[in-house]
Amino acid sequence: MDLNSIMSSQLIQLQQTVQMSVLQNAMNMDTVAAVQMLQDMPETAAPHPFKGTVLDIQA
After folding, report:
1. For the chain, how big is the Rg over CA atoms in Å?
2. Residue 28: predicted pLDDT
3. Which residue, 5, 15, 28, 52, is the most exposed by fewest CB within 10 angstroms?
4. pLDDT of amino acid 12
5. Structure confidence at residue 8 (pLDDT)
6. Ordered DSSP codes for 1-30
7. φ and ψ at 11, to 5 degrees?
8. What whole-number distance in Å separates Cα of residue 35 and Cα of residue 11?
9. How far is CA 46 from CA 11, 27, 35, 43, in A?
10. Rounded to whole angstroms, how far apart are CA atoms 33 and 21?
11. pTM, rounded to two decimals
12. What is the rounded distance in angstroms from the CA atom of residue 37 to the CA atom of residue 29?
């Protein structure tokens, strides 16, 4: 193997490692943001869309 081919394969491996690292950091940031958003949600429950209402079903 010549030096160019060794350097080329090492460069490809380095690029893949950097891409995976950037992807991992982005996923971690998204996870932290999602957890923070869920924690900041109000504790009150949303009203049920029809429970407790009177429905007229006479034909």
Report:
1. 27
2. 94
3. 52
4. 94
5. 94
6. --HHHHHHHHHHHHHHHHHHHHHHHHHHHH
7. -65, -40
8. 36
9. 54, 30, 20, 9
10. 18
11. 0.56
12. 12
Q: What is the pLDDT of residue 44?
A: 79
C-alpha distances (whole Å) from 36 to each of 23, 30, 42, 48 are 20, 10, 12, 25
The residue behind tokens 């394969």 is: 9
| DSSP state, residue 45 | P
**Measuring CA to CA, how many Å separate 48 from each of 10, 26, 52?**
59, 36, 8
Structure tokens at 29: 């940031």
Structure tokens, 33? 């943001």
User: Which residue stretches of the chain have pLDDT < 50?
Assistant: none
Look up residue 5 and give its two tokens. 């081919």
